[in-house]
Design a protein that fits this description.
The chain has three helices and seven strands. It has 128 residues and is an alpha+beta fold. A hairpin with an 8-residue loop joins β2 and β3. The radius of gyration is 20 Å and the shape is elongated. It starts with a helix and ends with a strand.
């Protein structure tokens, strides 16, 4: 996804350069495209762990020492054969917090993705 965004920004720069516009307009547009690229949110890695009894745990980051937090799948989450879009309600330190997680099939093995979809259908996400 990040490569696609970089490519689209490159195409925008190319289009600006090829457009018959005054130099000031081209320069301003190029700077704005550059700022847009710099300000892209960086994707954050997270880990999910589910148990057979229906509990789901969330850990921010890929660091093995990151703490696991109990979470629940919000009813607005979507599960499809192409992706899982999850809204997780975290409960940590007595505070409620939400995290949005997009899981694409190529981010884990096909068998694990299938098992995740089955688990989510059983324990709380809507299939579309």
């Amino acid at each position: 996804m990040r490569a696609l965004l970089w490519g689209l920004h490159g195409l925008a720069w190319l289009a600006i350069g090829l457009a018959d516009l005054p130099f000031v307009v081209q320069g301003t547009a190029s700077v704005l495209v550059g700022l847009s690229l710099i300000m892209l949110p960086s994707p954050q890695t997270c880990r999910l762990r589910a148990d057979p009894k229906g509990a789901l745990y969330y850990s921010a980051g890929a660091v093995p020492d990151s703490p696991w937090v109990v979470c629940q799948v919000d009813g607005a989450s979507h599960v499809t054969p192409l992706y899982c879009s999850l809204i997780l309600n975290l409960q940590k330190d007595g505070q409620g917090e939400q995290r949005r997680v997009l899981i694409l099939p190529d981010s884990l093995s096909s068998d694990d993705f299938r098992r995740l979809r089955v688990w989510l259908r059983r324990w709380g996400a809507h299939e579309h």
